[in-house]
Amino acid sequence: MSKKIKQPLTKKQKRRKRRKILIIVEVIILVLVIAFLVLWLKFGLIDFNKLKDIGKNDLDKDTIALLQGYQCIALFGVDNRSNGDYDTGHSDSIMIACINNDTKEVRVISLYRDTALKMNIKNKDLILKCNSAYQNGGPEAALEMLNRNLDLNIQEYVAVDFNALVDVIDDLGGIEINLTPEECKYMNNVVGDYGGYIGEVASVTGKTSDGVAPGLQTLNGVEATAYCRIRSTAGGDFKRAERQRTVMSQMVNKIKNMSASQALKLATDDNVLKEISTSLSPTEIAALATYMRDYNLGATSGFPFDKAGYDGGSSKGYLLVPCTLESNVSKLYYFFFNKENYVPSETVRKISNDIINLTGKKEKDAEPD
Description:
Elements: H1 11-43, E1 47-48, H2 61-67, E2 70-78, E3 91-100, E4 105-111, E5 116-121, E6 124-129, H3 132-150, E7 156-160, H4 162-171, E8 175-179, H5 181-188, E9 190-191, E10 194-195, H6 197-205, E11 215-219, H7 221-229, H8 236-256, H9 260-267, H10 270-274, E12 276-278, H11 282-290, E13 296-303, E14 307-311, H12 313-316, E15 318-322, H13 325-337, H14 346-359
Parallel strand pairs: 1-12, 2-7, 4-13
Antiparallel strand pairs: 2-3, 3-4, 5-6, 7-12, 8-11, 9-10, 14-15
Helix pairs in contact: 4-7, 6-7, 7-8
């Protein structure tokens, strides 16, 4: 049987084929434009907070050059019971994420909420718990406190409350956490003056949970947020900060492996977008999202590394003292930037001495974890 010889297309057929291809391309472009406009309009639901230039210490030129190779963003979890209020409230979760612009590695530090740092409150320089800065001056005061005490140059932040964390985790389909019996006790039940965290989060957010049991399981948004709030087990606030980093790591892993439809669902969730306050612009958010799959979550830790407890009395309460701030900032530079033997600025050295004079705590007084 002879093969049928394929006849060349006529000029008219070629024009029709080109027009068909053009129509398909135009439809694809139109869909992309509409999707882009939808996302752009959705960004309008976010509380974009354009900040003034946040102050930083007088750093030497080598340090300034070093910092320019990284993007550091402060992450605040605000303990507010009123949804969408980001101007005040204790920042019970404070993290700093430093992105290496070349390698895309992200390293994260949790600042323990009771850490004694110096901040300006109503035109007075005071040594207080670090979570007091946000309470008394919002994100601007909190960022300046971080830069001043840690020799950083953080100009951007993201703040969320209970509702945002619950909704994002639910959109991700929950996260896997291995729970201990003690953690379950505090999550499910009121124990003394603490606990019942699931009930508290559910009451604030209007979401539900059937409770949790020990072992590896998938936690929904209410349960995972309750897990982040536990501070009464062994390890206290240090363990709580570690739990928060564990939840963050699980969320990052799920986000990196999301399908396109899951990513679109998360990016267009009105509830989530309304529960975010940030100084990042829509353009900056889009740029970060572009490289999402390239980011690699590296080491995480808590700050200060070397520390001791101190009773600050009725005016200051319990303080967690860096032993000393100067040596801890030097270690912070090694953790974030692989900078060995960093010599902190004169500002940090003075604050470090002020904290020693207040508490009497030096490097030799650091307590074991």
